[in-house]
Amino acid sequence: MRKVVLLGIVVCFVVMALGVAAFAEKEIHIGVTVPGLFSPAFVEMKRQGELKAQELGVKVTIVSAENDIDRQFEQVRDFIAAGVDGIVITTIDSYGIVKAVEEANKAGVPVITVDRKSFGGEVFYHEETDNFNAGRLCAVYVAHLFKDHPGPIEIFIERLDPSVDSVEDRFQGFMFEVSQWPNLKVVAAPNLGMDVGKAFEATINAFQANPNIKVIFLPGEPWLSGTVSALKQLGKWFPRNDPNHIVMVGVDGDQFAVENMIEGYYDFSAVQAIDKFVANAIEVFVQYFREGKKPPVKERYVPVLGLCPENFDFIKDRVWGYRVYMEQKGKQ
Amino acid sequence: MGLSRIHGAEGEAVTLSATQLYRSPLGYGRVFFSEGECPLKNIKAIVAGQFIFLFMVAFFVFMAVVSPQFRTHYNLFNLWLDAVITGILGIGMTFVITTAGIDLSVASNLVFSAMIGAILMSRGQGVLLAFLVMLAVGLGFGLFNGVMVARLKMVPFIVTLGTLSLGRGLAMLSTRAKSVYGFPEIVTRIGSGEIGFFPVAGLIMAFLYVVAWYVLNRTVFGRSVYLVGSNPRAARLSGIDVERVKSLVYLVSGLCAAIAAFIQMGRLNAAKPNMLYGLELDVVSAVVLGGTSLFGGKGNILGTLWGTMVIVLIRNAMVLFGVSVYYHQVVKGLVILAAVLIDILRSGVLKKR
């Protein structure tokens, strides 16, 4: 008898829960897939997205694809199955994601891509950094630093995954600008993939083969710590006012770059507004679902902000890496 | 499935080493019992023997009850399709682990085979030729692993760790880390198409499991695999060519990797040298979860399928429930550990009998 009563109570609870769920107002549900949480930029992008969802009162599910395009494909399919209203993708591979976007199109779920494009399928809205010019700006800074130097100024590039179009565009932009300056010479540009250990290894190897390297360009700054460790091990870690200083420039504007700039070791960062990409995408979706408003343009290329020690105090409050750095410092 | 049917028509007692074993038609539950005794008298023991299957079914039913999205045709189709790559690699891995070996190079082998096939197709070569070359690459890796392990007596973990790195490196080198995309329609149809309500790739996986079940449970080679894994000395004394069996299981693994590579290409309509990183660990998890012992001698091909399904179900459930990304790996790890632990505890019931 007791068991029957208990079972009855459980059944009541289940029925009540299902009833509440059925009568609750349908809230907007947005699925977001990011490449991984290995980069501080993606962590911040996720956090800002969650804050925006909270502010707008929508449900957001954010998943990480662990840098595996196949997993990201599965995640998009899972979102479709979960019945989300819209999907935001920061893809790992612009070609590899096409099939997933097409699947979403077939299911009638709108897709917004941020930071990296899909080279196929119908995308509702796309937002990314003007990556080519971000890379170019870094090279302009280097050219400006060495404008009176006869050269050759040897440059080492920590190239990331060439199949990621955003970082590849930065590389191409940097190379384009370097080709305009006869005193600048790229001596090594190994592919590091997405591995901080490889940044360390590659820097050691590059300096062993080319001891006169004067500049390091990082198309993405998450592996900066590996590079810094390598320079320390090589005995080449000098502040900016030292004649032996190795000039370091990069794209992102994350907290490691900010920290090293404050300490006087990092030279220039092309700061992305990447932290806002997911939040902006959520806002675009909410406006569309609630008010039927479509974004005025289908694609938006956000310019970067050049951050260097000379302008640091003027623009630091607009740099997401500075905000994260200060928060972490506050916690310590 | 009637209980009497398990014992009568399908049940079979075989002698491996000094142990009496029982195989049920589900392939799982090699229940220990004394000669002449009907194992079905003890339902508890059967439940214990089929644990991972029952766990998978319970999980499935739970999800179907609590999540309306789970029950949709799209999601069920999706689940089946998501299990394909891990499932097919799991077949080869079950053969290898049953001989007390391990093949850590499966995912790298898959990726390298896929890159070679993709390059050939992108240069206008026919699908059949590309597939044959992919098979050759997959089998080549398997042969290399097999020779190193069986003939040169090298430790499987180290050999396949080496080929893991080799495969990834060659895949990167083949296109300088760039993706290759856009394959003939037949490839994408195999990778993500459907026949009626069923995914083509899912049907291929099902067929491969039937073949693998038959080979492992109904052929001399299959029996040899068990015996080589449980007692290589006894196997040798029984006239089994232990080295040949060990080499062949790595070939099976290589073959599975090549077939999975072809399906993977069609699935994404693209091949990327750094895709499926860490998949080999998911495959090992699925195999062990399915009841195959890492120490060899105890293998269960259908258990691998159920293990694969459990992993896929966990991943799917977390997205459907909107679980925070930070918990995904933790939850997956805990569920796998819990399932294996419960399985061990349940198996204890059997051994005490």
Automatic annotation (TrEMBL), chain A:
Compartments it resides in: Cell envelope
tRNA processing listed as a keyword: no
GO function terms (MF aspect): carbohydrate binding
InterPro entries: Peripla_BP_I, SBP_2_dom
Protein name, UniProt field: Sugar ABC transporter substrate-binding protein
Pfam families, alphabetized: Peripla_BP_4
GO CC aspect terms: cell envelope
Domain Periplasmic binding protein: 30-293
Species this protein is from: Candidatus Caldatribacterium saccharofermentans
Keywords, in A-Z order: Signal
Family listed: Belongs to the bacterial solute-binding protein 2 family.
